[in-house]
Design brief:
five-stranded mixed sheet; four-stranded mixed sheet; globular
């Protein structure tokens, strides 16, 4: 089955339900590899899936080149300074030169990798179920290694000299400089939560609750119950603009003050499916359901202004790049990108 990528530019004229299909293109790479984990850098769309890393011209859909890795790429790549850093389940770390289209270096860490690398100064940090390891990002030499048990794929967030993640019923912070433990905060949380770090605070959702912690020591600042009937399996990541903190919970979009957690408004979208994490772009809130609809809301009151319809179920969280909002869908081996908002 051929793999196709589709980019559609959606016009932002007033309408309740839009499905504009302008400047669309399709890209067939052949084979049966379903590319996912898209990252946009300039005019290039980079995507990875199975053992393939691909570069596609975002303007016209022209395939630029592909690279085959050893092992399955299970998490999004990190693009920095014309280099793609990614890991595979075979335990390999790649530093792929995007100009030369070949690796600067590769390293096998001897354990399964399901992570997106992080860069801290001159270090590239990756992790397995059993340890965290920092490599020289230019040549791949080991710089430090910390034995630390995880479920294998927590989502890391870096802020200054603190690296945080949610895993195993607690929030943990380590030093990215040397891997030493800074603090842990044991919470009655279920599974893993993606963290938002802003203004020295950590925000995250877990089941029916929204938490705010102090970044320096993990101390709880405030906690709110969003919806007592929330699913324990879906933990979305909040988004923030100034002192406005926006979250999704089941079919609701809720706004709080970021400093004190005071509820400002909530809107039920009455969707048949739960909602992805929200994003803020051009003073609008965008949120997609785990289905085919994408909603555009006013940031001040949460009023729905537009609804966009996708031809297939949206599988990824929304992406913001250069004041544009993108989302990714998957329909068998077919993927789609949509340009939703352009400044």
């Amino acid at each position: 089955m051929k793999l196709k990528f589709l980019i559609l530019a959606l016009c932002m004229f007033p309408a309740k339900l839009l499905m504009a299909q302008q400047n669309s293109w399709t890209c067939s790479l052949g084979g049966n590899t379903a590319l996912m984990y898209p990252v946009i850098d300039g005019n290039v769309l980079y995507a990875a899936g199975e053992n393939v890393f691909a570069a596609i011209d975002i303007k016209n859909g022209k395939p630029l080149w592909t690279f085959k890795a050893e092992g399955i790429i299970a998490m999004p790549p990190l693009i920095a300074n014309k280099t793609a850093f990614f890991t595979t389940k075979a335990g390999n770390v790649y530093a792929l030169d995007l100009n030369l289209k070949k690796p600067k270096w590769t390293l096998n860490v001897g354990d399964k990798l399901i992570c997106t690398p992080l860069i801290y100064k001159d270090l590239l940090i990756v992790y397995t179920k059993n340890f965290f390891i920092a490599l020289d990002k230019e040549v791949g030499l080991d710089m430090w290694k910390t034995e630390l048990k995880t479920s294998g794929s927590p989502l890391l967030k870096l802020s200054g000299d603190v690296l945080c993640f949610s895993d195993n019923m607690k929030i943990t912070a380590i030093s990215p400089a040397n891997g030493k433990l800074l603090w842990t905060n044991s919470l009655p949380v279920f599974g893993q939560s993606d963290l938002l770090i802003n203004n020295e605070k950590i925000y995250f959702t877990n089941a029916d609750k929204l938490y705010c912690l102090n970044l320096a020591d993990g101390r709880e600042i405030w906690k709110k119950v969003m919806n007592s009937n929330a699913s324990p399996l879906i933990n979305t990541v909040p988004c923030i603009a100034d002192n406005l903190l926006v979250v999704t919970c089941n079919q609701e979009v809720i706004a709080y003050t970021a400093d004190k957690g005071q509820e400002l408004w909530r809107v039920s979208l009455k969707t048949p499916a739960s909602l992805h994490s929200p994003v803020i772009c051009n003073n609008k809130i965008y949120v997609a359901e785990y289905g085919t609809k994408l909603f555009c809301l006013r940031i001040d009151k949460g009023k729905v202004e537009q609804i966009f319809e996708a031809p297939a179920k949206m599988e990824s969280e929304l992406l913001i790049e250069n004041n544009r909002v993108y989302f990714f869908t998957s329909d068998g081996f077919a993927g789609s990108f949509y340009l939703v908002s352009e400044k």
